[in-house]
Specification:
The chain is built from ten helices and 17 strands. It starts with a helix and ends with a helix.
């Protein structure tokens, strides 16, 4: 078993699911437990400048082994797994030499990973896949990234003939709830540029992402006895349904792709007295992103024209498209593309239909595109990662480090 696989199988045993409701950093104690374990591992490897702060941000240095003046490059991955599904008691299993047939994850619960529903599986015929038992997510997002970074550093330590500059690695909490970069100390990290190892399938290289915001629409109602409610009651839930259908029905995640943005209703909490609609708003184009927020404001005003003072909205910008920060330093994309080709991989440059810590870090002064970690079907019971994909990601990291020049 290769080192990257051994590490990954150990890392997924840590329960690091994040939780946006705790208002703490890290948001869950399991992330700090995992960070402390990784700190010990990095110490045993002999890395330098190792630090773990009270917020769960772990940083370390692989010193340069040459006298040449070279840029300092960083590699970043996140400790947490998605709140969308449990990451407790993960039971990974290796499916050897995948034959293209449905994979029974859990026979007693009839949970099957079927290529009819997930045709990407057929891209991995003959490969070894790591899957779940169907009761949890796997955690390749982003424990595959952590395993790949540490395995790459371990490889470089054991191959001193590969000359390189200073390398910094950073592992942060709470990426899945949009807080991963908020307390990341870019100045302390001290890199010229960095890469997050947090993408999906082999070859993914991303330096464009959504502009993102949340919108909380609150609708106040008026409750009276339903037998005497005529012309008196305002049922906030019924008003909320009117609001929902006013947004464009085709501009939702299930109807969009590529550069198309959307409105996504992610939560409803309601009674007659009050209903709260939770939306996320996404668009790669900044002008269209701002227009989407204005459209929601318009619909709030339209609702209030029928039910005065009933509706209000609160927006919170989450992150912006990193492209504007990467374009002035496009050589870091060229370095990554070259590293992939050296590993026998065709780079697949594409926009992220989501976000990444790298977006926020880029706006904090650390240009930080995103590279594949190799997993598929993130955030759910059907998540899996091909072993060869993790091994290729490790090679790409090594190649980037050796190819970085002033």
């Amino acid at each position: 078993m290769s080192p990257v696989v051994e590490k990954f199988l150990k890392y997924v045993t840590f329960d690091t699911q994040s939780d946006e409701l705790t208002n703490m950093t890290p948001s869950t104690p399991g992330q700090m437990t995992f960070a402390k374990y990784l700190k010990e591992e990095l110490e045993k490897l002999g890395l330098e400048e190792i630090s773990l702060d009270d917020y769960g941000y772990l940083m370390a240095t692989l010193p340069a082994n040459c006298d040449e003046e070279l840029p300092t490059v960083g590699f970043i991955a996140h400790l947490d797994t998605s709140p969308d599904m449990s990451g407790k008691n993960v039971k990974p299993r290796i499916v050897e030499n995948y034959d293209g047939k449905p994979i029974i994850l859990n026979q007693s619960q009839n949970i099957v990973l079927d290529p009819e529903q997930f045709p990407e599986l057929l891209n991995y015929l003959g490969e070894d896949l790591i899957v779940t038992d169907g009761t949890t997510l796997l955690g390749a997002d982003d424990k595959a990234g952590i395993a790949e970074i540490i395995a790459a550093v371990e490889y470089l330590i054991s191959h001193p003939e590969i000359k390189h500059g200073k390398v910094r690695i950073g592992f942060n909490p709470d990426e899945e709830i949009g807080m991963g970069a908020h307390k990341f100390d870019v100045e302390k990290f001290g890199c010229d540029f960095a890469y997050t190892m947090d993408g999906g399938a082999v070859g993914e290289l991303e330096f464009e992402n959504f502009n993102a915001a949340s919108a909380k629409v609150t609708i106040k109602g008026r409750n009276v006895h339903p037998g005497y409610a005529k012309h008196k009651m305002i049922n906030s839930m019924r008003v909320a349904t009117q609001f929902i259908v006013m947004l464009p029905r085709w501009e939702t995640p299930e109807h969009t792709e590529g550069y198309e943005g959307f409105y996504h209703l992610v939560g409803i909490q309601g009674t007659v007295e009050e209903t709260v609609l939770s939306y996320i708003i996404r668009d790669h184009d900044r002008a269209r992103f701002e227009s989407r927020k204005r459209e929601i404001e318009h619909l709030v005003n339209k609702t209030n024209s029928e039910y005065p003072g009933c509706a209000s909205v609160e927006f919170k910008d989450q992150y912006y498209n990193m492209r504007e920060k990467i374009e002035p330093v496009m050589h870091i994309i060229e370095i990554a593309e070259k590293a992939m080709r050296e590993a026998g991989i065709d780079p697949h440059v594409q926009p992220i239909r989501g976000g990444t810590d790298g977006a926020q870090l880029s706006f904090k002064g650390l240009p930080c595109p995103n590279i594949f970690a190799g997993g598929e079907n993130f955030h759910g019971r059907f998540e899996y990662v091909p072993i060869s994909s993790m091994e290729k990601a490790q090679k790409v990291i090594v190649n980037i480090i050796k190819d970085c020049k002033a």
